[in-house]
Amino acid sequence: MWVACWLHLGCVWRLRASIIQVMNYNIIWCALVAPCMALATTRDAPDAAAILKRTAAVYTNLRSYEFRVTVQTIQGSKVGARHLTETGSRPGNYRVQDEDPRGDLRVGDGRTEWVFNPESNEYTKSPLTAETVTPISEFEHIDQHVKRATLAREERLMVNGRPVPIYVVHVIRDRWPAGSLAGTEFAMYRIDQKTFAVHKAITYAKGITQIVLYSIMKWNEEVPEMLFAFTPPESAHAASSVAARTAESTAIVGSEAPDFTLPDTGGQPINLRGLRGKVVIVDFWATWCPPCREMMPHLQQMHRALADKGLVILGLDVGEDAETVAGFAKRLSYTFPLLLGAEPDVAAKYYVESYPTTFVIDRQGRIAFRNLGGGPADGLQSAVESALHTGH
Fold it and tell me: Is the whole-model pTM more than 0.85?
């Protein structure tokens, strides 16, 4: 069991040394901590290499596309996000538009790439080459320079309001694509089992994590050619380089908790805002995750002891169905609400990069505490007790 767990990475999770000191490792593998649950994969599932090869072929043959893209960065307790629209068509036409009017614009017209920064009123012009990074070049070459690839598990992702089966593929490379985070260690891709489109990619580097979510608006549908034409404003001036805008970072603790409504295992919707006035623990978890399972008895104990004092505990499952979650809760006598469908939208609102990630939300609806990776429950207990005694 230990060897299989190591090889398949079925329950890999990430702990940042800056947040939780556990054996001084940035990445703790399940084989070092606890026996692994069986992978949620079928016997006839393709191996990781085959999935990556199929994904590369799909994007190489993609004629046209339009994606709404969210790029999140997590650096310690600071988080930030950019929202982009990426559009493209063959051959060599693409447009990357930041939704923030201060953001830079990238346009490829088949021969030339233009990059324009409206804040500095500068632009660059360079010829398109085989090395030019386009919105889909990472996925056209997703099967290249792979040192090790593993099918971590199969799960479900909510796409346009419906659960879609996906493969979760763990990738380590001997060379990362241009534009990747400096010091990248590995990446996790959520890949559609039917279309082989990438819905989510998480890149883990030293000290920083990047999460990219893709909402597919058009796939092999016609897109306006006018999007790929660019003429610099008369007042703009050419530059040797244009600095790309980075996401503005904010502290997640102290910010207002993003609202959500999710169903429990019986189909009953629970709304976070409707719990205003109570202290709420929001715990992102899954049954396949050992530190998540280690956290659950502590949550159940707090539920029993503190519910009548105003504590509500919500376990937000990621990627599993009602039968799996309800069966797990019944078997182990967990009685606090377990909600479904948190991945990817609600998880993105909370910048979840690993499981479990646990939040304490105070009576005013603000995030009072955040903990990644489980670990000792002392900090969580103290944060809950502090929040319960504040704001009466």
Answer: yes
